[in-house]
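Hi F.,

I've been meaning to write this up properly since the lab meeting, where we talked about keeping a consistent format for the predictions we share between groups. The idea is simple: the sequence comes first, exactly as it goes in, then the structure tokens exactly as they come out, then a line or two of notes. No screenshots and no reformatting. I'm using this chain as the first example so we have something concrete to point to.
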Amino acid sequence: MLLKVKEAREHSDSIVACSADVTDRNGAEALKGARVFVSRSSFPTPEDGEYYWVDLMGLPVTNREGVSLGMVHDLLSTGPQTVLVLHAEEGGKKVERMIPFVDAFIDKVDLQARCITVDWQPDY
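Output, unedited:
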């Protein structure tokens, strides 16, 4: 279903929107949990050092020594900071790592080269 958004605003930690195509509460409740897609052309340009989560998903992450730590599988908002959730396979086992997405641990995000370099060790 394609809906044209008439109005949208931030509310707590989410976005509230309304559409002329949804005329009552029952129609709105029927959309609860629906996935929402927004055209990339509607995104504001991020400032230096800011990234859209969608741009980080799937990027390989290596540490300063060049050791692969995995690929960005998800990001978590913990309140004070965002955390990268990495998935990797090591020795035939699936490994999950979580790295705080803060300057102390993130050395470089290179969207052009599609990689992230961190100050993090595999055994953390």
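Notes:
The mean pLDDT is 92.
The radius of gyration is 19 Å.

If this format works for you, I'll send the rest the same way.

G.
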